[in-house]
Give the backbone structure.
Amino acid sequence: MKIDILTLFPDMFTGPFDASMLKKAKDMQLVEINIHNLRDWATDKHKSVDDRPFGGGKGMILRVDVVDAALESLKSKVTSNKSKVFLLSPQGKIYNQERAGEMAKLNHLILIAGHYEGFDERISEHLVDEEISIGDYVLTGGEIPAMVIVDSVVRLIPGVLDEDATLYESFSTNYHATPVLPLGTGQAVRSSSSSEQKLLDYPQYTKPEVYKNWKVPEVLLSGNHKEIEKYRRKKALEKTMKFRPDLLK
Ligand code: SAM
């Protein structure tokens, strides 16, 4: 997969993309991530990419002509038809795991990070495939949302993580109905009886078995995989009911 990010603050991306799973994915050449400074497509001598809003008001607005030129240039280097342009915006459709899964099937993503007051509406109307929000709050810029999307998409690209690592997690529709299999075996399969229900992950424990009189649930130490699976499904349901009842249909 190739990911192009358009931003006014390229330096913000140094660090997050050079460690952990994203670094591994880049090293394995499963993803290529390019950060582009929008100012490279500015045409005046001041390299301006934004201007005051027509009709008055505060702040600076990202210009449609600059973004159009940037997109033309990036698109001209890509032949795949599985390529889409996403605008990061608090006004967009709320992002979630399902969306991450769909985006992971594309070959090329262009992410546009806005800043300041926002962007000329013609960018959203004519130049992008989708406007995405990472939640109902306003951030200073689209750089952190772009990082959130890149991280959540790249870990779903086949080969980046073990297959069962992404099946057995919160918001997965698979693992809660999957027959018991030792985790980490790569043998996870979607059960024929699996429902489309999305649950939060079940609680996990590790050593020590007892800490400050807080004990690990006995069943997890029993070695009885059937009982462990029953316990985990029950706990996943309880957690979902408590914290995200909206996920339970
Ligand atoms: N005036 C805009 C509004 O009220 O909707 C907010 C602009 S915000 C300060 C600047 C930029 O940050 C946005 O153009 C967008 O790219 C990004 N941004 C802020 N919050 C976001 C969110 N929740 N999801 C995605 N992008 C966001």
User: Anything to note?
Assistant: The CA atoms of residues 124 and 144 lie 19 Å apart. The chain has two domains: 2-167, 189-248.
